[in-house]
Design brief:
Distance between the termini: 92 Å
Number of strands: 17
Structural class: alpha+beta
Radius of gyration: 43 Å
Number of domains: 3
CATH architecture of the largest domain: Sandwich
CATH class of the largest domain: Mainly Beta
Largest sheet: 5 strands, antiparallel
Strand content: 35-45%
Length: 381
């Protein structure tokens, strides 16, 4: 055994530097140990252990050698180097993940920015005065002789996790295709712009600035095109119809009172009875409707989902037809029944604040007649 390990010593030694050997009287232990120490200093710990093992078989090894200590130092250094390598690899992988997450965040931010940080569900249009008071509710019928400022109202879902302040630009095109703008007030190539806050979450709304004149006469009957932009990206195109209104002073009406009975049943359906007390003049033999238009408390029309109780614009409405039999006709209790199941709220649980307007419409004259009355209520789902 000694012979073979001593031959290994000779091979290891000669692989490093030339040493003169004279039989077993050579300085085997000192030379072999020194070679192991040198390899330790060079951080070649595995090879150093081989030399320390070889030195242990040298015939001149002293009784109080430190070979076991040296080998343990090598093993400890190997473990430390391996730990450092693993830590370095872990740090490298963590940095790669950080860079990938940062790249993903930048890509997501770019995608959200291209959409203006929102998914637009729909846009309704209303009529405002110069103090932003609503003259015709968003989604209602717009008439040319009533128009002051055409104001878009956006219903959207905010896509970012925090509020975003952005500048939106939009264009309004007349029915003949020309752009509505003012050379001194409009941004280049657009009708108007404004800075708004896009909130995170669903069922959010935003009313943009109106465009028109306080004295009216700006809008003619026809179909107008609306285009909304953010940073050059077209976010949405919508169309809005402004109708011609044939007015007459001969047809008049007054809605005096509106009462509501809740939780009534008609033909097996649960709903509300809307009792309308009104008088109507000079509409004899006109085909008319008493109409109840339904809105959320924030002014957004409630959208119909089954084409049953709905307007041409797709909003929820209840109605009752009538035909005045006299030049001056009074209805003390005309009832509009509205099933609860036809009030299609986007909220399916909890209590939702709503209201409705009652108006009278003559299909013969193609006009609303008289005043309208607002009634608020809550729906629990």
């Amino acid at each position: 055994m000694f012979r073979y390990r001593f031959l290994l010593i000779l091979l290891l030694v000669f692989s490093g530097s030339f040493i003169s050997i004279k039989g077993q009287d050579c300085d085997c232990y000192k030379t072999t140990r020194a070679q192991g120490v040198k390899l330790m200093q060079q951080k070649q710990y595995a090879k150093a252990i081989q030399f320390f093992d070889a030195a242990a078989d040298c015939p001149d090894k002293p009784a109080n050698d430190d070979l076991a200590q040296k080998k343990e130092e090598c093993r400890r250094a190997i473990r430390q180097a391996e730990d450092a390598r693993r830590q370095e690899e872990t740090a490298r992988q963590a940095e790669q993940r950080r860079q990938q997450e940062a790249a993903n965040a930048r890509r997501k931010e770019s995608e959200l920015e291209a959409k203006g940080y929102m998914d637009i569900n729909y846009i309704n249009f209303g009529n405002q005065d110069n103090k932003r008071e609503v003259l015709t509710w968003y989604g209602g019928t717009l008439y040319d002789d009533e128009m002051r400022y055409l104001a878009p109202k956006i219903r959207y879902t905010g896509l970012a996790s925090v509020s975003k302040s952005i500048t939106l630009y939009w264009k309004i095109f007349r029915p003949d295709g020309t752009l509505c703008r003012n050379d001194s007030a409009s941004p280049e190539g657009f009708t108007i712009s404004g800075t708004y806050t896009i909130e995170p979450g669903s069922d959010k709304s935003l009313v943009l600035g109106g465009w028109g004149t306080e004295n009216g006469g700006y809008y003619k009957p026809g179909r107008y095109r609306f285009e909304l932009y953010f940073k050059g990206n077209l976010l949405r195109t919508e169309y809005v119809e402004i109708k011609a209104k044939t007015t007459t002073t001969s047809r008049t009406a007054e809605i005096k009172e509106v009462k509501v009975d809740h939780n009534v049943y008609v033909d097996g359906k649960k709903g509300m009875n809307i009792h309308v007390n009104f008088s109507i003049d000079n509409c004899m033999d006109d085909q008319c409707d008493a109409l109840a238009y339904f809105y959320y408390a924030n002014g957004s029309p409630i959208k119909d989902t089954n084409s049953s109780y709905n307007t041409a614009d797709g909003n929820v409405v209840g109605s009752k037809s009538f035909k005045p039999g006299y030049p001056k006709t009074t209805y003390n209790d005309l009832i509009i029944f509205m099933p609860y199941s036809e009030i299609h709220s986007t909220t399916t649980t909890g209590t939702v604040a709503m209201y409705f307007f009652v108006e009278l419409y003559s299909y013969t004259a193609k006009q609303f007649v008289g005043n309208k009355i607002k009634v608020t209520f809550n729906m629990t789902y």
